[in-house]
């Protein structure tokens, strides 16, 4: 009896986690649509570099520099290096040796290139970071590290709930075979800043490792533009996941932390603005 209760509790937690993931995907789709509408408007026409950006003074969201390579504005060098090693994402215990440079975000180490922007996203209560968004021009990839059962199969459990959530929000979604196994392709309603409602395409994937699942959502031109899609696929495959030994319910977000150098930059900015320094939000997860 006790084991059945524990199993039912785990199933309920998994359903709740999938619903929360789907809700985050839908929210981010709206933001991606808004971002795509304003993409490419820089006066000089060049891709924006984030090497001098830091998280906002409140410590909840912000941008960090994903790469130390100043001569790789479009990811060409990054892709050649990424494709020279076995594809991930990787567990921290089995990372192949390469020259890929990664940003340490606590439970994730994320690789990128000069003009790729990494934005940290907090939960609605603004108490912890729950995902990151890698973006370049009008393409983006949302990445979220989740705890998963040791037995595996969590992506199979998540997909039906994600499908239900997106359909109930007025979207269309289907399962398709892809590079990462069974994937989801969706079209969801999203609102632009001027109030116009558009249909935003999403590609949702999930890859499992030892007691973790890495969830990815391709947005903007990374869904249908082959070159952008392959570029962000390589970003996803180069993620390293550090699960840790702490017990966590399936679907719970693994702790994401602001890099130390970005924390210092945020503290300096806060000091200049006369505000208290930002806290490391990942510690509360």
Describe the structure in your own words.
This protein has 285 residues and is of the alpha+beta class. The chain is built from 5 helices and 12 strands. A hairpin with a 6-residue loop joins strand 5 and strand 6. The chain has one domain. Strands 1-5-6-7-11-10-9-8 form an 8-stranded antiparallel beta sheet, sandwiched between helices. The C terminus is likely disordered.
Q: Cα-atom Rg, whole angstroms?
A: 19 Å
Note the overall shape.
globular
Low-pLDDT segments: 36-60, 281-285
Describe the biggest sheet? 8 strands, antiparallel
Number of domains: 1
H and E order? HEHEEEEEEHEEEEHEH
Figure out the total of helices: 5
Secondary structure tally: strands: 12
User: Between the first and last Cα atoms, what is the distance in angstroms?
Assistant: 31 Å
Strand order of the biggest β-sheet: 1-5-6-7-11-10-9-8
Average pLDDT, all residues = 80
**Percent of residues in beta strands:** 25-35%
DSSP helix fraction:
25-40%
Helix/strand/pairing category: alpha+beta
Set out the fold topology.
Blueprint lengths: L1 H36 L24 E3 L11 H7 L7 E2 L10 E3 L3 E4 L5 E6 L6 E8 L2 E9 L6 H15 L3 E7 L2 E11 L5 E13 L2 E9 L5 H12 L2 E2 L18 H14 L12
Parallel strand pairs: 2-12
Antiparallel strand pairs: 1-5, 3-4, 4-12, 5-6, 6-7, 7-11, 8-9, 9-10, 10-11
